[in-house]
Amino acid sequence: MTTVYEAKPRGLSRRDVLRRGGKAGLGAMLVISGSAVISPQFAWGLETSGLAPETVATLIQMARDIYPHDHIEDRFYAIAVKSYDEQAGKDATFREMVEGGVADLDKRAGTGGYRGLGWEDDRVDILRQIETSPFFQTVRGGLVTGLYNQKEVWPLFGYEGESYSKGGYINRGFDDIEWL
After folding, report:
1. What PROSITE patterns is this protein classified in (predicted)?
2. Would you say 30 and 74 are in contact if contact means Cβ atoms under 8 Å apart?
């Protein structure tokens, strides 16, 4: 007897939303209001001035897809992409590159745009298509410092910060291998 397996439907079901609703990584719960991106679930907002709020919301989702950490809240990703909004307010060429890059992501994603894709794998496939573009390289490169240089994020990764001012690592966990 041959068993036929049906493909799992794409998109978020009501059950998926309810199940994942308590997790920090559900970028679909960002709300665009005027010139702000708001997360009502976690009570934070980000005012935009150089980029459209939809663009910033897409950058937050893109940041989460490039550097995925389910235990990190979207607000840390929003802080990381805020610098793109600030730079776009000062540099029209930069703004055009970012807005154009996000428009390209939305076009590649089809109906609903990049943020409308419910499956991370689908979004990552699109990012792989553009990974050599200046837009992708600019966003990815800036996120390294924008995300990981936030002192509030360090404890979430178990990093205590620099150790020089505390006497170095020799007497403070140099041989601690519990994190592996």
Report:
1. TAT
2. yes
Instruction: Name the nearest CA neighbour of 63 among 11, 112, 127, 157.
Output: 127
7 pLDDT higher than 50? no
pLDDT of 67-118, one tens digit each? 999 999 999 999 999 999 999 999 999 999 999 999 999 999 999 999 999 8
Query: How many whole angstroms separate alpha carbon 71 and alpha carbon 74?
Result: 10
- Classify residue 110 by its DSSP letter: -
Reported as a single tens digit per residue, the pLDDT across 8-30 is 445 555 555 444 544 444 444 78
Instruction: Give me the sheet containing 31-33, strands edge to edge.
Output: 31-33, 36-39, 44-47
Residue 39 in 3-state DSSP?
strand
Amino acid (1-letter code) at residue 35:
S
Collapsing DSSP to helix, strand or coil, 1 comes out as: coil
